[in-house]
Specification:
alpha/beta; single chain; binds nicotinamide-adenine-dinucleotide; Rossmann fold; 2 domains; Dehydroquinate synthase-like, alpha domain; 14 helices; binds fe (ii) ion
Length: 382
Amino acid sequence: MANRMTLNETSYHGKGAIEAIVDEVKSRGWSKALICTDPDLIKYGVTSKITDLLDKATLPYELFSDIKPNPPIENVLSGVEAYKKAAADYIIAIGGGSSIDTAKAVGIIITNPEFADVRSLEGVAPTRNKCAPIIAVPTTAGTAAEVTINYVITDQEKKRKFVCVDTNDIPVISCVDPDMMMSMPASLCASTGMDALTHAIEGYITKGAWEMTDMMHLKAIEIIGRSLRDSVKGDAAAREDMALGQYIAGMGFSNVGLGIDHSMAHTLSAYYDTPHGVACAIFLPTVMEYNAEFSGEKYKYIAQAMGVKNTESMSQAEYRKAAIDAVKSLSKDVGIPQNLKDIVKEEDLDYLSESSIADACAPGNPRTVSKEDVIKLFKSLL
Ligand SMILES: NC(=O)c1ccc[n+]([C@@H]2O[C@H](COP(=O)([O-])OP(=O)(O)OC[C@H]3O[C@@H](n4cnc5c(N)ncnc54)[C@H](O)[C@@H]3O)[C@@H](O)[C@H]2O)c1
Ligand SMILES: [Fe+2]
Protein backbone atom coordinates (compact mmCIF):
# COMPACT_ATOMS: atom_id res chain seq x y z
CA MET A 1 0.00 0.00 0.00
CA ALA A 2 1.24 3.50 -0.78
CA ASN A 3 2.31 5.79 2.05
CA ARG A 4 0.25 8.93 2.60
CA MET A 5 1.69 12.23 3.85
CA THR A 6 -0.51 15.11 5.01
CA LEU A 7 1.10 18.36 6.18
CA ASN A 8 0.09 22.02 6.63
CA GLU A 9 -0.52 23.94 3.45
CA THR A 10 1.88 26.64 4.72
CA SER A 11 4.02 26.82 7.83
CA TYR A 12 6.26 29.58 9.18
CA HIS A 13 9.20 28.87 11.46
CA GLY A 14 11.44 31.00 13.63
CA LYS A 15 11.26 34.34 15.40
CA GLY A 16 8.68 36.63 13.85
CA ALA A 17 6.64 33.75 12.37
CA ILE A 18 3.43 35.14 13.90
CA GLU A 19 3.76 38.33 11.84
CA ALA A 20 2.76 36.32 8.77
CA ILE A 21 -0.77 36.00 10.16
CA VAL A 22 -2.02 39.41 9.03
CA ASP A 23 -1.03 38.98 5.37
CA GLU A 24 -2.31 35.40 5.29
CA VAL A 25 -5.73 36.46 6.62
CA LYS A 26 -5.97 39.37 4.19
CA SER A 27 -4.87 37.40 1.15
CA ARG A 28 -7.29 34.57 1.89
CA GLY A 29 -10.17 37.00 2.40
CA TRP A 30 -11.20 35.65 5.81
CA SER A 31 -13.34 38.10 7.69
CA LYS A 32 -13.62 37.22 11.40
CA ALA A 33 -11.62 34.92 13.67
CA LEU A 34 -12.65 32.90 16.66
CA ILE A 35 -9.52 32.76 18.83
CA CYS A 36 -9.32 29.46 20.73
CA THR A 37 -7.00 29.76 23.71
CA ASP A 38 -6.81 29.15 27.47
CA PRO A 39 -7.14 31.43 30.52
CA ASP A 40 -3.47 31.24 31.60
CA LEU A 41 -2.28 32.32 28.17
CA ILE A 42 -4.51 35.38 28.42
CA LYS A 43 -3.22 36.05 31.97
CA TYR A 44 0.46 35.76 31.00
CA GLY A 45 0.11 37.97 27.92
CA VAL A 46 0.83 35.22 25.39
CA THR A 47 -2.47 35.47 23.48
CA SER A 48 -2.13 39.25 23.32
CA LYS A 49 0.95 38.90 21.12
CA ILE A 50 -1.46 37.84 18.38
CA THR A 51 -4.44 40.04 19.27
CA ASP A 52 -2.12 43.08 19.24
CA LEU A 53 -1.23 42.24 15.63
CA LEU A 54 -4.90 41.81 14.71
CA ASP A 55 -5.87 45.05 16.46
CA LYS A 56 -3.16 46.98 14.66
CA ALA A 57 -4.38 45.62 11.33
CA THR A 58 -8.06 46.16 12.35
CA LEU A 59 -8.85 42.49 11.73
CA PRO A 60 -11.95 41.48 13.74
CA TYR A 61 -12.01 38.54 16.16
CA GLU A 62 -13.84 37.11 19.16
CA LEU A 63 -12.07 35.38 22.07
CA PHE A 64 -12.97 31.89 23.30
CA SER A 65 -10.62 31.32 26.19
CA ASP A 66 -12.23 28.65 28.39
CA ILE A 67 -10.09 25.73 27.22
CA LYS A 68 -8.81 23.37 29.93
CA PRO A 69 -5.77 21.07 29.82
CA ASN A 70 -6.82 17.57 28.64
CA PRO A 71 -9.82 19.35 27.06
CA PRO A 72 -13.24 17.83 27.84
CA ILE A 73 -16.12 17.36 25.39
CA GLU A 74 -17.87 20.36 27.01
CA ASN A 75 -15.06 22.64 25.79
CA VAL A 76 -15.72 21.55 22.23
CA LEU A 77 -19.46 22.09 22.57
CA SER A 78 -19.06 25.60 23.98
CA GLY A 79 -16.45 26.37 21.30
CA VAL A 80 -18.91 25.44 18.56
CA GLU A 81 -21.48 27.78 20.11
CA ALA A 82 -18.90 30.56 20.42
CA TYR A 83 -17.93 30.17 16.74
CA LYS A 84 -21.55 30.43 15.63
CA LYS A 85 -22.33 33.35 17.95
CA ALA A 86 -19.27 35.24 16.72
CA ALA A 87 -20.26 34.61 13.07
CA ALA A 88 -16.61 33.69 12.55
CA ASP A 89 -15.30 32.19 9.31
CA TYR A 90 -11.91 30.94 10.55
CA ILE A 91 -10.12 30.01 13.77
CA ILE A 92 -6.83 31.10 15.26
CA ALA A 93 -5.75 28.47 17.79
CA ILE A 94 -3.21 29.83 20.27
CA GLY A 95 -1.87 27.46 22.88
CA GLY A 96 -0.58 24.03 23.58
CA GLY A 97 -2.15 20.82 22.35
CA SER A 98 -5.28 21.45 24.40
CA SER A 99 -6.22 24.69 22.61
CA ILE A 100 -5.23 23.47 19.17
CA ASP A 101 -7.03 20.12 19.61
CA THR A 102 -10.20 21.85 20.79
CA ALA A 103 -10.02 24.19 17.79
CA LYS A 104 -9.75 21.19 15.46
CA ALA A 105 -12.83 19.52 16.95
CA VAL A 106 -14.77 22.79 16.78
CA GLY A 107 -13.69 23.36 13.17
CA ILE A 108 -14.70 19.83 12.16
CA ILE A 109 -18.16 20.06 13.76
CA ILE A 110 -18.83 23.43 12.15
CA THR A 111 -18.44 21.93 8.67
CA ASN A 112 -19.64 18.40 9.54
CA PRO A 113 -22.56 19.04 11.93
CA GLU A 114 -23.64 15.39 11.91
CA PHE A 115 -20.73 14.81 14.35
CA ALA A 116 -22.00 17.40 16.86
CA ASP A 117 -22.12 14.83 19.68
CA VAL A 118 -18.24 14.84 19.56
CA ARG A 119 -17.92 11.19 20.71
CA SER A 120 -18.69 9.92 17.20
CA LEU A 121 -15.45 11.57 15.99
CA GLU A 122 -13.32 8.96 17.81
CA GLY A 123 -10.90 6.98 15.65
CA VAL A 124 -10.96 7.61 11.92
CA ALA A 125 -14.23 9.49 11.50
CA PRO A 126 -15.76 9.59 8.01
CA THR A 127 -16.11 13.37 7.86
CA ARG A 128 -16.74 14.71 4.37
CA ASN A 129 -15.68 18.34 4.61
CA LYS A 130 -12.48 20.16 5.47
CA CYS A 131 -12.81 21.81 8.87
CA ALA A 132 -13.25 25.56 9.23
CA PRO A 133 -9.84 27.03 8.34
CA ILE A 134 -7.39 27.09 11.25
CA ILE A 135 -4.25 29.10 11.81
CA ALA A 136 -2.41 27.26 14.59
CA VAL A 137 0.11 29.00 16.83
CA PRO A 138 1.74 26.58 19.31
CA THR A 139 2.88 27.98 22.67
CA THR A 140 4.43 24.73 23.94
CA ALA A 141 7.19 22.77 22.20
CA GLY A 142 5.69 19.34 22.44
CA THR A 143 2.49 18.08 20.90
CA ALA A 144 3.01 19.42 17.35
CA ALA A 145 -0.79 19.56 17.17
CA GLU A 146 -0.30 22.41 14.68
CA VAL A 147 0.87 19.91 12.03
CA THR A 148 -0.88 16.69 13.01
CA ILE A 149 -4.08 15.16 11.71
CA ASN A 150 -5.04 14.12 15.26
CA TYR A 151 -6.79 15.64 18.19
CA VAL A 152 -7.44 14.23 21.64
CA ILE A 153 -10.56 14.97 23.69
CA THR A 154 -11.45 13.84 27.22
CA ASP A 155 -14.73 12.11 28.00
CA GLN A 156 -14.97 13.01 31.69
CA GLU A 157 -18.08 10.92 32.21
CA LYS A 158 -16.32 7.74 31.02
CA LYS A 159 -12.94 8.81 32.43
CA ARG A 160 -11.16 8.30 29.12
CA LYS A 161 -9.45 10.31 26.44
CA PHE A 162 -10.19 9.54 22.83
CA VAL A 163 -8.04 10.14 19.79
CA CYS A 164 -9.58 11.41 16.56
CA VAL A 165 -7.66 10.92 13.33
CA ASP A 166 -8.87 12.94 10.37
CA THR A 167 -6.97 14.58 7.51
CA ASN A 168 -9.81 17.12 7.29
CA ASP A 169 -8.74 18.65 10.60
CA ILE A 170 -5.21 19.76 9.73
CA PRO A 171 -4.58 23.48 10.26
CA VAL A 172 -4.14 25.24 6.92
CA ILE A 173 -1.40 27.45 8.35
CA SER A 174 0.88 27.08 11.32
CA CYS A 175 3.14 29.75 12.79
CA VAL A 176 5.80 28.11 14.93
CA ASP A 177 7.33 31.10 16.66
CA PRO A 178 9.72 30.47 19.57
CA ASP A 179 8.76 33.83 21.10
CA MET A 180 5.33 32.32 21.83
CA MET A 181 7.09 29.62 23.90
CA MET A 182 9.53 31.73 25.92
CA SER A 183 7.14 32.16 28.86
CA MET A 184 6.86 28.40 29.49
CA PRO A 185 7.95 27.58 33.06
CA ALA A 186 10.74 24.98 33.29
CA SER A 187 8.44 22.11 34.28
CA LEU A 188 6.12 22.69 31.29
CA CYS A 189 9.08 23.03 28.96
CA ALA A 190 10.43 19.71 30.27
CA SER A 191 7.21 17.74 30.07
CA THR A 192 6.17 19.01 26.64
CA GLY A 193 9.70 18.44 25.33
CA MET A 194 9.59 14.85 26.57
CA ASP A 195 6.22 14.46 24.81
CA ALA A 196 7.96 15.48 21.60
CA LEU A 197 10.77 12.98 22.22
CA THR A 198 8.16 10.28 22.81
CA HIS A 199 6.51 11.16 19.47
CA ALA A 200 9.85 10.90 17.72
CA ILE A 201 10.79 7.55 19.28
CA GLU A 202 7.36 5.92 19.04
CA GLY A 203 6.91 7.29 15.51
CA TYR A 204 10.32 5.89 14.52
CA ILE A 205 9.59 2.34 15.68
CA THR A 206 5.84 2.21 15.00
CA LYS A 207 4.52 -0.45 12.59
CA GLY A 208 3.79 2.02 9.79
CA ALA A 209 7.19 3.77 9.87
CA TRP A 210 8.96 4.18 6.51
CA GLU A 211 12.04 5.88 5.16
CA MET A 212 10.64 9.39 4.86
CA THR A 213 9.22 9.46 8.39
CA ASP A 214 12.36 7.75 9.75
CA MET A 215 14.32 10.72 8.44
CA MET A 216 12.02 13.11 10.29
CA HIS A 217 11.99 11.18 13.53
CA LEU A 218 15.76 10.74 13.70
CA LYS A 219 16.28 14.44 13.04
CA ALA A 220 13.74 15.27 15.73
CA ILE A 221 15.48 12.97 18.25
CA GLU A 222 18.80 14.64 17.43
CA ILE A 223 17.42 18.16 17.93
CA ILE A 224 15.55 17.31 21.12
CA GLY A 225 18.51 15.32 22.50
CA ARG A 226 20.87 18.27 22.03
CA SER A 227 18.51 21.08 23.10
CA LEU A 228 15.95 20.02 25.68
CA ARG A 229 18.22 20.42 28.73
CA ASP A 230 19.19 23.99 27.80
CA SER A 231 15.67 24.84 26.72
CA VAL A 232 14.42 23.88 30.19
CA LYS A 233 17.06 26.24 31.63
CA GLY A 234 15.52 29.03 29.53
CA ASP A 235 18.19 29.33 26.83
CA ALA A 236 16.60 31.18 23.88
CA ALA A 237 18.50 29.38 21.10
CA ALA A 238 17.63 26.00 22.60
CA ARG A 239 13.94 26.95 22.82
CA GLU A 240 14.03 27.90 19.14
CA ASP A 241 15.65 24.54 18.37
CA MET A 242 12.95 22.72 20.35
CA ALA A 243 10.20 24.56 18.45
CA LEU A 244 11.61 23.06 15.28
CA GLY A 245 12.38 19.61 16.71
CA GLN A 246 8.87 19.04 18.02
CA TYR A 247 7.36 20.17 14.70
CA ILE A 248 9.54 17.77 12.71
CA ALA A 249 8.46 14.93 15.03
CA GLY A 250 4.84 15.93 14.31
CA MET A 251 5.39 15.82 10.54
CA GLY A 252 6.42 12.22 11.00
CA PHE A 253 4.23 10.65 13.68
CA SER A 254 1.04 12.27 12.46
CA ASN A 255 1.40 10.26 9.27
CA VAL A 256 2.43 6.90 10.70
CA GLY A 257 1.05 6.66 14.23
CA LEU A 258 2.49 6.05 17.69
CA GLY A 259 2.35 3.15 20.16
CA ILE A 260 1.48 1.86 23.60
CA ASP A 261 3.31 4.65 25.47
CA HIS A 262 0.74 7.14 24.18
CA SER A 263 -2.12 4.74 24.86
CA MET A 264 -1.06 4.40 28.50
CA ALA A 265 -0.43 8.15 28.74
CA HIS A 266 -3.92 8.97 27.44
CA THR A 267 -5.40 6.64 30.03
CA LEU A 268 -3.32 8.09 32.86
CA SER A 269 -4.29 11.68 31.97
CA ALA A 270 -7.98 10.84 31.66
CA TYR A 271 -8.03 9.04 35.00
CA TYR A 272 -5.75 11.21 37.16
CA ASP A 273 -5.50 14.41 35.08
CA THR A 274 -1.73 13.93 34.76
CA PRO A 275 -0.19 16.40 32.26
CA HIS A 276 0.21 14.64 28.92
CA GLY A 277 3.97 15.14 28.60
CA VAL A 278 4.66 13.92 32.14
CA ALA A 279 2.63 10.77 31.46
CA CYS A 280 4.45 10.06 28.18
CA ALA A 281 7.85 10.64 29.74
CA ILE A 282 7.32 8.36 32.76
CA PHE A 283 6.47 5.44 30.46
CA LEU A 284 9.10 6.04 27.80
CA PRO A 285 12.16 4.06 29.03
CA THR A 286 9.97 1.17 30.23
CA VAL A 287 8.09 0.99 26.93
CA MET A 288 11.40 1.20 25.03
CA GLU A 289 12.66 -1.82 26.99
CA TYR A 290 9.43 -3.68 26.23
CA ASN A 291 9.73 -2.93 22.49
CA ALA A 292 13.50 -3.42 22.15
CA GLU A 293 13.33 -6.93 20.66
CA PHE A 294 10.90 -5.69 18.01
CA SER A 295 12.90 -2.75 16.77
CA GLY A 296 15.70 -4.36 14.73
CA GLU A 297 18.69 -2.02 14.54
CA LYS A 298 16.69 1.10 15.22
CA TYR A 299 17.88 1.64 18.80
CA LYS A 300 21.42 2.02 17.43
CA TYR A 301 20.27 5.05 15.44
CA ILE A 302 18.25 6.37 18.38
CA ALA A 303 21.38 6.12 20.55
CA GLN A 304 23.44 7.92 17.89
CA ALA A 305 20.84 10.67 17.55
CA MET A 306 20.85 11.06 21.34
CA GLY A 307 24.61 11.70 21.17
CA VAL A 308 25.90 8.27 22.30
CA LYS A 309 29.41 7.60 20.93
CA ASN A 310 30.97 4.39 19.58
CA THR A 311 27.68 2.65 18.84
CA GLU A 312 29.26 0.85 15.87
CA SER A 313 31.43 -1.19 18.24
CA MET A 314 28.51 -2.10 20.51
CA SER A 315 26.58 -5.37 20.49
CA GLN A 316 22.85 -5.23 19.88
CA ALA A 317 22.14 -5.55 23.59
CA GLU A 318 24.65 -2.78 24.36
CA TYR A 319 23.28 -0.22 21.91
CA ARG A 320 19.72 -0.96 22.93
CA LYS A 321 20.64 -0.34 26.55
CA ALA A 322 22.59 2.78 25.56
CA ALA A 323 19.54 4.25 23.78
CA ILE A 324 17.28 3.57 26.77
CA ASP A 325 19.87 4.94 29.23
CA ALA A 326 20.27 8.13 27.19
CA VAL A 327 16.51 8.71 27.30
CA LYS A 328 16.39 7.94 31.04
CA SER A 329 19.18 10.35 31.81
CA LEU A 330 17.56 13.17 29.80
CA SER A 331 14.26 12.54 31.54
CA LYS A 332 15.95 12.67 35.00
CA ASP A 333 17.98 15.76 34.12
CA VAL A 334 14.86 17.73 33.20
CA GLY A 335 13.07 16.71 36.40
CA ILE A 336 10.49 14.16 35.24
CA PRO A 337 9.23 11.76 37.97
CA GLN A 338 10.71 8.31 37.39
CA ASN A 339 7.76 6.18 38.53
CA LEU A 340 4.00 6.18 39.09
CA LYS A 341 4.08 5.78 42.88
CA ASP A 342 2.41 9.11 43.57
CA ILE A 343 -0.13 8.77 40.76
CA VAL A 344 -1.51 5.26 40.23
CA LYS A 345 -3.49 3.14 42.69
CA GLU A 346 -3.08 -0.62 42.30
CA GLU A 347 -6.86 -1.22 42.39
CA ASP A 348 -7.24 0.90 39.21
CA LEU A 349 -4.88 -1.28 37.14
CA ASP A 350 -7.57 -3.43 35.57
CA TYR A 351 -9.47 -0.44 34.20
CA LEU A 352 -6.27 1.37 33.20
CA SER A 353 -4.99 -1.54 31.13
CA GLU A 354 -8.37 -2.20 29.46
CA SER A 355 -8.57 1.44 28.52
CA SER A 356 -4.97 1.52 27.23
CA ILE A 357 -5.55 -1.48 24.98
CA ALA A 358 -8.68 0.18 23.52
CA ASP A 359 -6.78 3.40 22.69
CA ALA A 360 -6.31 4.27 19.00
CA CYS A 361 -2.50 4.38 19.32
CA ALA A 362 -2.14 0.79 20.60
CA PRO A 363 -2.30 -1.02 17.22
CA GLY A 364 0.70 0.97 15.99
CA ASN A 365 2.99 -0.46 18.68
CA PRO A 366 5.75 -2.58 17.10
CA ARG A 367 5.06 -5.42 19.54
CA THR A 368 1.50 -6.73 19.78
CA VAL A 369 0.32 -5.80 23.25
CA SER A 370 -1.93 -7.79 25.56
CA LYS A 371 -3.81 -6.54 28.60
CA GLU A 372 -1.53 -8.66 30.81
CA ASP A 373 1.53 -6.98 29.28
CA VAL A 374 0.10 -3.55 30.03
CA ILE A 375 -0.63 -4.52 33.63
CA LYS A 376 3.01 -5.65 33.96
CA LEU A 377 4.25 -2.38 32.45
CA PHE A 378 2.18 -0.35 34.93
CA LYS A 379 3.25 -2.57 37.85
CA SER A 380 6.93 -2.19 36.99
CA LEU A 381 6.56 1.54 37.66
CA LEU A 382 4.70 1.29 40.98
N1 LIG B 1 -3.02 16.66 18.38
C1 LIG B 1 -1.99 15.92 18.62
O1 LIG B 1 -1.38 15.38 17.70
C2 LIG B 1 -1.52 15.75 20.02
C3 LIG B 1 -0.28 15.13 20.27
C4 LIG B 1 0.13 14.98 21.58
C5 LIG B 1 -0.66 15.44 22.62
N2 LIG B 1 -1.87 16.02 22.35
C6 LIG B 1 -2.76 16.52 23.42
O2 LIG B 1 -2.36 17.86 23.77
C7 LIG B 1 -2.69 18.10 25.14
C8 LIG B 1 -1.48 18.60 25.88
O3 LIG B 1 -1.02 19.81 25.33
P1 LIG B 1 0.26 20.59 25.92
O4 LIG B 1 1.15 19.61 26.56
O5 LIG B 1 0.81 21.40 24.82
O6 LIG B 1 -0.31 21.50 27.09
P2 LIG B 1 -1.73 22.23 27.28
O7 LIG B 1 -2.21 22.85 26.04
O8 LIG B 1 -2.63 21.29 27.99
O9 LIG B 1 -1.31 23.39 28.30
C9 LIG B 1 -0.91 23.08 29.63
C10 LIG B 1 -0.77 24.36 30.45
O10 LIG B 1 0.36 25.08 29.97
C11 LIG B 1 0.06 26.45 29.84
N3 LIG B 1 0.89 27.05 28.78
C12 LIG B 1 0.91 26.69 27.47
N4 LIG B 1 1.83 27.46 26.81
C13 LIG B 1 2.37 28.30 27.71
C14 LIG B 1 3.34 29.33 27.63
N5 LIG B 1 3.95 29.65 26.49
N6 LIG B 1 3.64 30.02 28.76
C15 LIG B 1 3.04 29.70 29.95
N7 LIG B 1 2.11 28.73 30.09
C16 LIG B 1 1.78 28.04 28.98
C17 LIG B 1 -1.41 26.47 29.49
O11 LIG B 1 -1.98 27.70 29.82
C18 LIG B 1 -1.95 25.31 30.32
O12 LIG B 1 -2.30 25.76 31.61
C19 LIG B 1 -3.19 16.79 25.71
O13 LIG B 1 -4.60 16.78 25.75
C20 LIG B 1 -2.67 15.77 24.72
O14 LIG B 1 -3.43 14.56 24.70
C21 LIG B 1 -2.28 16.19 21.08
FE1 LIG C 1 1.94 13.23 22.79
